[in-house]
Amino acid sequence: MTDATAGGEAGQPAQSPSPPPPPEHRSQSGSGGQQTPQDLQAENVVEPDTEDDGASSRAGDGVWDEGFDGSSIGNHSASTSLSNSVRDYVFENTRRYHKYKEGRYLMPNDEPEQEREDMKHAMCVNVMDGRLHCAPLENPQKIIDIGTGTGIWAIDMGDEYPEADISGIDLSPIQPTWVPPNVRFVVDDAEADWVWPPASLDFVHARHMCMAVKNWPRMLSQAHDALRPGGWIELQELRFVLQCDDGTMPGPEQYGYGKFVDLCMSGFRSFGINPLAMESNAEMLRASGFDDVVEKVWKVPIGTWPRDQKLKTIGLYNRSMLIDALQAVSMAPLTRGLKWSASEVEVFLIDVRKSLMNASIHSYLTFHVVYGQKPHKS
């Protein structure tokens, strides 16, 4: 994607975009500087705050939760009806991982990771102006959330659609016990054979799955089969390619977080996982038989450098989430995949953390939402 600018959502007044910077001022870091699709425009405009002296950045992480609504976050205790074999955990390098299908997912499932996932949920909902989805749903009755994690999206959807039956599936039974009566959780692997009958679902949702899924075509094909004609699927992903519009971001060798992204990409790929598979989400949905495929993109700043107050808050969420993610994202890919020692990873992360706190670097990620509809005659 070029670092394009655009107005707001359909039906919303369009913002006046700033003139794009000259090509020599555009830079990217991470994943070899791959370009995003040229025909996509961002839903938001991010301009630097020229009057910010960095004080908001130096304020530290203690204020990340300003405006964060944690009312739907449960105690993360798993349902007591699950067997001990499913509820067992594996501990490695101070982090806790799932036991069921051990090694299938490279990220931990402990309390710090659950808190980070809930923070990421709040950030993404904020980016989308308070919405949980973009697909134009009409009275959905059966909804599934793939890779539900803490279950916070499914719980919020249960409140928004009280007449719908919502199921969240995940490898880890870490969801709250007390949830809306129309929400339930299932321990399962989304890449295994699906248990939902053909033409039984109205909406399939998956978010932040690019660091987990290996066989996207098979999973999307199963989603297509399970959806009723006219049903929708929506994929939400952060694209971990660092971008900058004003030349303030150095290359990955000089930018600790840029180097971190490159190394983690290599680590995940060593397990057969493509963390940038989401770049083909729209194409894969069409190939799986979905129509009316739409892709929306938002810029998500790292830090408090934007001028707009809402984007400052989003940038604060994002930076805090990324700092908390450093060990969680890198430990297994770098130690298991690239054969680093745990101590080497920890030493490396010192400079990475410092780079994320550098208020003079105006970098950002992009958040992509792709949705499509199963044809009414299928």
UniProtKB/TrEMBL annotation:
Residue span of region Disordered: 1-82
Keywords of this protein's UniProt record, alphabetized? Answer: Methyltransferase, Transferase
Protein's GO biological process: methylation
Any single GO molecular-function term of the entry would be: methyltransferase activity
Q: Where is the composition biased (Polar residues)?
A: 72-82
Q: Which SUPFAM superfamilies match?
A: S-adenosyl-L-methionine-dependent methyltransferases (SSF53335)
Q: Which CDD domains match?
A: AdoMet_MTases
Q: Which family does it belong to?
A: Belongs to the methyltransferase superfamily. LaeA methyltransferase family.
Q: Which PANTHER family match?
A: ABC TRANSMEMBRANE TYPE-1 DOMAIN-CONTAINING PROTEIN-RELATED, METHYLTRANSFERASE
**Protein name, UniProt field:** Methyltransferase domain-containing protein
Name the species this protein comes from: Colletotrichum orchidophilum
Could you read off the lineage of the organism from its UniProt record? Eukaryota, Fungi, Dikarya, Ascomycota, Pezizomycotina
